[in-house]
């Protein structure tokens, strides 16, 4: 029988703050958060607000003060403790606006822990607005009830990334590179063949694919595992999501899935 | 070593036509296709065009005539034979514009064979433009090098769908229903536990989730298998993609993946 796992009523507002969260604390909201609550959502005094900071789990508070440019939440009690989240990095060639927005939102929903834009030969996007990517990642995290924000890196050239990877002090973790029209094992098989390590990383090329030189670079790097996502030609943002979804569903790294099973009431 | 699997140069234009494809045939293009080639893409006479019809594989042709309202392609030779494609149905509560567009495009890329809009209690979209969904599905299929178009059904109420399902002459195939905040096994586990049948079907609820009555209906239907997509709260379109990606990666039904392995040159 299907039973409801969590009956706690959830506040309508959920915000990330970079402040310690403890019962009785008063937490200041920044200008944008205050504006959002006051002018966009028209939140009233004492409205319940959920807060998380990436470290202390999720807390229930209520709006103690709300002006045009500042606001304050009085913390009441913890709703959830911090839980382990997946450790998965997405390295992607930046895309044009709507598709990039989509890639960020979806990969945050799928639990990505680090987003790294990489510049390749056929990347047809000039400038990457990292601040904008961070703001979008934050908004998506607030929306999907994550307890952390992903790290968003500044862009780096592919050759430089591979060079740094090789010289990582911890040893080079496997980098699964999605390739098209090239001989490579299906992703599910590749993921099962490579022992699970601390962090998993996926590399997704631009719409135009990797150049011949880039394919040669990837081919000779011992830590790169080329993977196929099937015979259809996926758009870059679709490829990113398929890789993340496949990883999450097959890995034991998503505490999420453990939790979902562990928390199921024994009466079912 | 990474080797290129298919060196055939691909035409810039790829279109679905509902006509038999054989060498030497001349195939008429419809008004929209002619307009697209002439005015949007400014295709020249004799430009190479790839055609598929869902039955005869993919053929190379060249533009033999192109006017404002009509065009004709002379078929030269077959590039690929028809191959088996996944048999997977997505039943989804319609979403608002951008997210619905996205859901259709992505699920076509992921090989969905049938798209079925379903009306639930919390569906907040009044009217479903089925013709528009079909046009989008066609465009996405042309883009991602599929050899078929998915079927797009007219909307149906959830209760009616479940009722019809139960009385299917072939017996009711399993229907995997993505549920949130309810006790359900992770999707990867559920897919592996249920024997693979002809068709797989996934049900994705609306943004507001299923109502209590709907959960009760799903709960008592013997052919419904509730599945969890993890602890984060996914948007409806993300949930659809995760389910499809997970299915494709775990199933043997995606000839795509077989092909990718089979076609790898033996010299690798």
UniProtKB/TrEMBL annotation, chains A, B:
Molecular-function annotations in GO: rRNA (uridine-N3-)-methyltransferase activity
Source organism (scientific name): Varunaivibrio sulfuroxidans
Stored SUPFAM superfamilies: alpha/beta knot, PUA domain-like
Subcellular location: Cytoplasm
Biological role: Specifically methylates the N3 position of the uracil ring of uridine 1498 (m3U1498) in 16S rRNA. Acts on the fully assembled 30S ribosomal subunit.
Highest taxon of source: Bacteria
Protein name from the UniProt record: Ribosomal RNA small subunit methyltransferase E
Domain named Ribosomal RNA small subunit methyltransferase E methyltransferase: residues: 85-246
Alphabetical keyword list: Cytoplasm, Methyltransferase, rRNA processing, S-adenosyl-L-methionine, Transferase
Principal localisation: cytoplasm
Cellular component GO terms held in the UniProt record: cytoplasm
PANTHER family: 16S RRNA (URACIL(1498)-N(3))-METHYLTRANSFERASE, RIBOSOMAL RNA SMALL SUBUNIT METHYLTRANSFERASE E
EC number(s) on file: 2.1.1.193
GO biological processes: rRNA base methylation
Domain Ribosomal RNA small subunit methyltransferase E PUA-like, residue spans: 30-75
Family: Belongs to the RNA methyltransferase RsmE family.
Catalytic function, reaction form: uridine(1498) in 16S rRNA + S-adenosyl-L-methionine = N(3)-methyluridine(1498) in 16S rRNA + S-adenosyl-L-homocysteine + H(+)
